[in-house]
Structures are given as structure tokens and as C-alpha cells.
Amino acid sequence: MTDEARQSIETARRKVTGKTKAPLWAVLFESLVRGITGAVILVLFFLMGTILVRGGGQITPEFLLQAPRDGMTAGGIFPAIMGTFFVVLFMIVMALPLGVFGAVYMVEYSKGGIMSRIIRAAVNNLAGVPSIVFGLFGLGFFVLFVGRNLDHHIYGVPRTAEEVQAVQAEMAPLQAEAREEAINLADERGITDPAELDAFVEAYVEEQTPPVPRTVFGQGAMFWAAATLAILVLPFIIVATEEALRAVPPSTREAAYGLGATRWQVISTVVLPQAKPGILTGAILAVARGAGELAPILFVGVTFFTPGLPLTEPVNFGLFSVPVVNPFEEFMHLNYHIYTMATQHHDPIGTRGIQFGTTLVLVALTFVMNLMAIVLRRRYSKKS
Amino acid sequence: MSVLPKQAVKAPSPPPARPAPPGHYLEVKNLSVHYGETQALFEVSFGTEKNTVLALIGPSGCGKSTLIKAVNRILELTPGARIDGDVLIEDESIFGQKVDLISLRQRVGMVFQRPNPFPKSIYDNVAYGLRIHGVKDRSTVDDVVEWALKHSALWDEVKDRLRTSALELSGGQQQRLCIARALAVQPDVLLMDEPCSALDPIATGKIEELIMSLKQDYTILVVTHNMQQAARVSDHTALMWLGKLIEHNRTEEVFTNPKEKITEDYITGRSG
Ligand SMILES: Nc1ncnc2c1ncn2[C@@H]1O[C@H](COP(=O)(O)OP(=O)(O)OP(=O)(O)O)[C@@H](O)[C@H]1O
Ligand SMILES: [Mg+2]
Q1: How many domains does chain B have?
Q2: CATH domain A57-156+219-383 topology
Q3: Residue B52 belongs to a domain
Q4: Do A79 and A384 contact (CB within 8 A), yes or no?
Q5: pLDDT at position A109, please?
Q6: In Å, how far is A266's CA from the nearest CA of chain B?
Q7: In chain B, which end has fewer C-beta atoms inside a 10 angstrom radius, N or C?
Q8: Considering the entire predicted model, what is its pTM?
């Protein structure tokens, strides 16, 4: 180093260390940042404190384990807790494999190819869509299109006015025939009272003609709600998985390829296990996000009140038979419960307690899931 | 593929089943490699015989790793790498239409310059190659793992903790683990990229012994920066310089009577 260079470094150093007082703008800026941070923390404390204090008193075994009763002014929120739990469970069961496969395809198969560019564009755009639009999509696509068509093709439920007419036209002669039989039968049995006769004929016709097909899939249901939420969280899972896959060093892949592994073996035995903590973190954050959303499921199956969790007939598992959750029924949800209690109930003031209790349960649920994500990430970063 | 250690199978060495093929056992023909726009190898050609050790020497960045990565086609995983020319093993091009990449890489094992163990247990690392090739039998896998770890001079240090993570090993231990992992697949050709760069003299000595003993069963290409090592373990030595093969000859010749000025300067430490 030349003496000149040494000299200039020395002066520069003195300039920096010699200054003890920060300029005015720095002081102002710093206090502004401190002030805003303090305000944000204060708001958070106030929010959490209110929920804790006013909701905490509500949390009793009865509140957690019973259905609402007395016109939703008493009882608990059990169906809503279970509804939230199961809709999110179904959501992640649908979204996780799809998202992971999508990301694996993008990172491992179609590197920069046309397909991966299409997926990326879709992911970027999906992430920016307002959540109520997902709700409308869920209603239009899953319930009205997929659900109604399933009903039509499996159970013969009519979809359009023409199909309704066709069904009616088909039923009409059968009904007329049954009606005639019923009148003859009534004659034989000596039923003469007009009211009695009417009731008899109705019942007979109902019994003798094929039943009018009922909607099974073409209505709001937990399954469709879960599918709608799955689409909402898909971008998060894809992005998280992508990052986790890209974080696997090329040298590890080379090692596996170098031993003669096929691409699928490299992915399944080396890349995915190494990316697992990152994928799981993404999945848990997606679950937390999915549990916190109301708009996407608003038209797709949540309902004001069910006496319990919708269940099927007992299913035989060989050793025992128990009823399982029926995903093709409407369900209660914590978010919707808060919303209806606060805005649709005849006594929103009297049910404040229930509202706070429900909010606390929801916040606690989300908090626990975020905590899990943080713990997983910790373990992940410690390993590598 | 035989799953038993070759040592165990080859007790009395059988007479050669077929006459030696007309060309070299492994032959590199006019091999050029580009990374995007920059050329890393220029028309490299040489051949090497079965059951010999060829040492590749040359200054850093001259293309040694690039060359041996081309021989098991691992180079194709590097984005932007382009290979021209040909590599023949027993007169068959490894780039041919009918060549199965999986069996090629099973046949041509590689130890990388930087240790790259899987984040799995020591045992699972060594067993990996067998498992992906469908060997499930527990005792066979156990035997091969022990055999491979013994031959890579690691067994005594890890025999009591085979189930712990390979990432807890030291750098030099990881390097020997990677050697064991490559041996366990029972390749015919073994490519070793500076296998001793992170090892102490004792472990280096063991690996050198290993290379010399493996010669009976394998054909070995070893990259090294250590002239003494090249002189000790190899039958032939090739000197590379800026992507070109400068000199290739019997090791004694190269070290005692180099033909090229560059070689002489390099091995005497006057350049590179
Ligand atoms: N992935 C890559 N992308 C671009 N250039 C590369 C890549 N890998 C290697 N190169 C270049 O190719 C040339 C040869 O590299 P190579 O790794 O084969 O050298 P080497 O002889 O193994 O060196 P060393 O002894 O330091 O390991 C170098 O100039 C290097 O910069
Ligand atoms: Mg190298």
C-alpha cells in the first residue's frame, strides 16, 4: 500500500469516528421509526388483550364441546370448531399433493419450459386474486358446474328448464296411471270422504312412481368449500415447495445421479426428503391461511347452524363400524359463526361473549399452527 | 451386477473370458466441452487400459474435473454444458442411442472433488447405490457396506455409529465415505476427483493403497494435485493445460523424461 492510500484511509476513518452527534434528519427518522413500531405493538397488545380478557371467560368445556342452543344464545361452538378443522383438513389433503407435484414438475422436469412458465404465470396471478372471487368461482365451478353435472349424470337430476320439462313429461303418464289405480282402489275400500281420498291418492302415487331425484353434489358442501380453499392456498404451497427444492444443492443431486439413480429415484429418495421441512412449513402456513378465510367459502357450504358435525351412516371398517364426516353436507365454521353472531343474530349485543370466545378459539388455532411452522423451520435451518 | 464384493468373488483369478478388444479399454476421442460460450476442453484424445490407474494432473482450472465428469455423463446435468466428440468404453460409445444412462453410471462410478454425502445416516449413504438398484436383502447390504467402508479406510472410525448422520463426519471422513459409497455399487471404472484433497497423510496413505489394490478389479482415473501421489499410484499420467492434453505417457516417463517443456516446468514446480 502506498503512503498516500494509507493517508486517505486514515482521514476517512477519522471523519467517521470523529463525529459524535448524528445529523438532525437521522434523529427525526429514528424517532419516527420508533414511534410507529411502538404504535403497532400497542395496537397488537390492545387487540390480543381484549380478545383474551373478554373471550377467556367464555372458554368452558361446555363451550368447546356442545352445539349452540336456545336460539344460538347459549351452548357452545363444537360444530363450528369441527367444521373448521375438517374443511381445512380436506383442503390440505387436496392442495398439498397437487402443489408438491406442480412444484416438482416445475423444478425437476420442465426447467424453464413452456409448461413451467404457464404454471408460474398462473401461480403469480392466483396469488393476487381477491378471496371473494375464489368464493364466486367455487360456487360457479364446483357447486353449479361440477356438482350439478355429477347429480345429473349419476342421479338424473335435471339441470335446465328443458330437462325439468323432460323429467316431468316422463313422469306424467306414470303418475296418471297410478292416480287412476288409486281411485279404483279407494272405491273398492269404500273411501268416500274427499279429504281422506285426496290423502290416500297422494300417498299411493308417491309410493308407486319412481322418486323425484334429489340433489346430492349440486349444493354447498364441505367438500366444495375445501376444494375452493385448496385453490386459494395452492400458490403458497407451490412457491414454498419450489424454494425448498431449489435449496437442495446440485452436488447432492449429482451424487445420486452418479450412483446410477433414475430421475424419479433422485427426487423421491434425495430431493424430497431434504426438502420436506420446507414443504411442511409451507403446508402449515397454508393451513393457517385457509383457516382464517371466510370469503372463499361464503357461498360454498357454510351455514348458520347444524346440530352437530354432519355425519354419514355408520361405515364398516371390518373391526368396527362408525359414522364418518360427510363432506357433502353444509357445515358450521368459526369465521362464519363470528360473522353471523355479530351481524345476523337478533341479539348481537347479548351474544358478545360467544363472539369473543369464538374469536379467541380461532386466534389460538391459527397461533398454534404458526408456532408449529416456526419450530419446523428452526429445526430445518439448524440441520443444514 | 454381482452384489457381492468383487474381492470375495474373484478368489482364484479366472482366465480372461474373451480376447482383449482391439482398441483401448476406455478411449476419449476429440472431446471438446463448452460451458455456454466459453470452451473448457479442446479436442482431448487419449486411451487407457483395463486394470490400470491413470493420473490426471494439471493446474487449477485446466479442465480435469470437466473431463472426468464427461466420462459418466454427469456433466450433462450442468446447465449450459455442451459436449462434442466421443468417449468409448470397450469400443462402445457412451453417447450412443442405445446406451442406458443408469447402467452407464452404475458401471462408471465417481468420487466428486467436494465431498457430497447425503443428509442420511452413514449406513444409508453407503447402502444407497445398492438400494436404488433393487438389492433388498439385509445381510447382503450389511456385508457390502462393511466391505466398502473397510476399503475406504473408514470402518474403524464409524463402525460403532453407522446410524448417525453422515453430516456429523469431518470433511476428510466425508470424503472417504463418498469413496465407500462409490465402491459399494461395484463399478468397472472409477473416476476419482482429488480423493485425498481433505485428508491427512495417514488417511491419504490408506487411500493410495486402496487405489493400488483396486486396480486389479477396476480401471481408475484419478485427478490429483499431488505430484508424489501421481508418481506413487499411477501407471500412466496425463498432463492437462488450459483445456488441452499436453502429454500422456507411462508415469515414469512423464516424471523422469518429460517430452514437453510445460510438463517439465509443471512437475518440477516451476509453473502452475
Ligand atoms: N459449471 C460451470 N460453468 C461455467 N464454467 C465452468 C463450470 N465448471 C467449470 N467451468 C470452467 O471450466 C474450466 C475447467 O474447470 P474444471 O473444474 O474442469 O477445472 P479443474 O481442472 O478441475 O480445476 P481444479 O483443479 O481447481 O479442480 C474452468 O475455467 C472453469 O472456470
Ligand atoms: Mg476440479
Answers
A1: 1
A2: MetI-like fold (1.10.3720)
A3: yes
A4: no
A5: 86
A6: 9
A7: N
A8: 0.80
